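Protocol step 4 of 5: obtain the predicted structure for the target chain.
Materials: sequence only (see below). No template structures provided, no constraints applied. The aim of this step is simply to have a reference model before the mutagenesis design in step 5. Sequence pasted as it appears in the construct record:
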Amino acid sequence: MSTKRDKILIWIGADLTHFLFASGLQEKHDADYYAIIDITNKPKNFFLSQKFVDFKKVWYYHDEIKITNDGKPDLEYLKDVEKKYDIDIWKLAMNERIFYRFYDFHEFSSNEILSIEEKSLRLFENILEEIKPDFFLTKWPSFHHLELCKEMCKKSGCKIVMMSPPKLGYRVLLSEDVNVLDHADDLDNTDDNNQNFEQMREYLQSHSSHTQLKKDYDSDSKKTISSELKVLMDYLVSSNDNIKTNYNYFGRTKWKVLKNLLSLRIKKKQRETFMNKKLLKNIDLSKQFIYFAMSTDLERYVLIDSPFYTNQIEVIRHVAKSIPPDHLLYLKENPSNVTRDWRPISEYNELLKIPNVRVIHPTFSNTELLKNCSLVVSIAGSSGFEAAFFEKSSIVFGKVLYSKLPSVYKVENLDELPKTIRLALNTKVNEKDLNGYLKLLEDNTFECDLTGLYRKISRKFYFNESTVDVEIEDTAVKDFINENHDEIDKIVDEHKKKILQHKKTIESVNNH
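Step 4 output (structure tokens):
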């Protein structure tokens, strides 16, 4: 009697990670492989001719999402698909950075947005109906269309194997949901490593996601003027078909791109000058304060995990209104927001005007704030998790992986925020709880410098993130796989292990 072959659908984006390990996975796990490839036009030539992975069929996402001027979305279909897959289309679309971030290039109309949604949903639905995949392999979604695809796969009974960072550096999580551990007992039933807080803080320091990011970006990721000029000159003299075929590039004429680039450079300098003058670099840590750790603008943890709290200025106002009168609210700009060219000066001025708020420069020590605060508040960032290591409870507004900790409070109702803050202030972090959670993380993750791998890919293929619309050579891919064989092979083995775990669970359920 023949055994049914697994059908594995893989999402491949510009970071290339899932493509790079797909060939190794195909060698170790015999199955039928399919791919949705989400790239710009120039790399497409490589995928059309590549021999590394034998895909049964490939769909190029942006080839399927063609927008016409006279096209109107099928609203009845959108209503039906929302109900069928239990998804909220506007909630995801309104938080898509492409639709509201880049008004300098193209202002999307409601019809354009809903047409993109309809075409995306029809594509994903057709793929699911055609191949009926058993597994969907992907990175954590940073764009809404990947989140749509993931949710549709999940509702169709397809098992998700999603690769993401678990708020710890040098560890990688494979799970069905970026905010849920697939196999996790209650903390009371978890054997722990019996470490005290000081030992756990040492572990955090060696696995700090902040340190990992800083190390990877400081090593050699800074764009040199010469490399940026080369990319810019190549862009200005080459044709740009993406403007017609890829909605991420709508309206991006060469003149607009050049004008926008120069404008942002000037604004970034002006913002840094303002921050250096106005944001605090020396603060009184003896006062009672609540620490609000600001998130990087337009990141997944805000847009998708905290869809109703994307305006951080307003969230900070809500918190400032809700704290006890004997506390100040210290908030620190996220150092990673440099990748967004910082915030407009007008936003910093708004924050500086709030009477019980002190705005701290991004270079100030995060550890010192965690040590000395009474409570940590975050939209959905890692500081809420790190607070527990310093015996501080935390409040979050979005979905977070570390919500299993009893010292973490999620805001469900803004009217209850003052009570939630006072409850959290009186909550003591239990050493055993944190021990147990770290053991759960250890059991559900594996050691891997995924951020470092992304940086290597960026340096090798994308001029240190200067552009993703590049030609990719077979020899470069082959060299990269050989140079990074051990890291890629580890990812392959962990994916195979996860697939087999899912299969075993499914068989167990079917047998009962």
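Step 4 remarks: The chain has two domains: 7-164+473-511, 197-216+278-442. The chain is about 50% helix and 10% strand.
Proceed to step 5.
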